[in-house]
Design goal:
about 65% helix; about 160 residues; mainly alpha; flat
Length: about 160
């Protein structure tokens, strides 16, 4: 649909949240509580601008034989305004940097996981036994280490302290 045909489509309907638009106006120097007509007019201007840019981008994609829009289509639509074009290009560069950083992070994460899988698990039984023995005297250590195992031979050994 051509922009002229869409001109009367959204008249009177607000596309953006009133609170967000009033915050935007306040950020750029307007009063804290702007008039409703000001919010409505700004909403219409921004909506019309975005519709026009999206229409030009979709037209470029259609000529290129695509149904989906790409960033290149928006670059083409904004080619006449260097400020908008520069902003779109910086967004594309940031998007690419984020994509590369995510790939690098995922590769680092998988490498760490592979390295961790190669290392043998540390034995914790000796360390916990040493902690238990720190409170005992040397003679008591020997008594503590004398353990009785089950006589069934099933492999399950229970450690019991031998009475003195």
């Amino acid at each position: 649909m051509e922009p002229r045909a869409r001109a009367g489509k959204n008249v009177g309907k607000e596309t953006f949240n009133r609170k967000e638009v009033s915050s935007l106006l306040y950020a750029y120097g307007d009063v804290e509580d702007p008039l409703p007509d000001t919010i409505r007019v700004l909403d219409e201007i921004v909506t019309e601008f975005l519709d026009g840019v999206c229409f030009e981008a979709s037209r470029h994609a259609q000529v290129a034989g695509r149904q989906k829009l790409k960033f290149d289509d928006f670059e083409f639509a904004l080619r006449r305004n260097p400020q908008y074009l520069g902003r779109v290009r910086s967004m594309i560069e940031k998007r690419q940097e984020i994509k590369e950083a995510r790939q690098g992070f995922n590769e680092d994460e998988t490498a760490v996981a592979k390295d961790h899988a190669k290392e043998p698990a540390p034995a914790t039984t000796g360390a916990s036994r040493d902690d238990d023995l720190n409170d005992l005297d040397e003679d008591e250590d020997l008594d503590y280490l004398n353990v009785v195992s089950s006589s069934k031979g099933t492999g399950s050994k229970k450690r019991k302290k031998v009475p003195k």
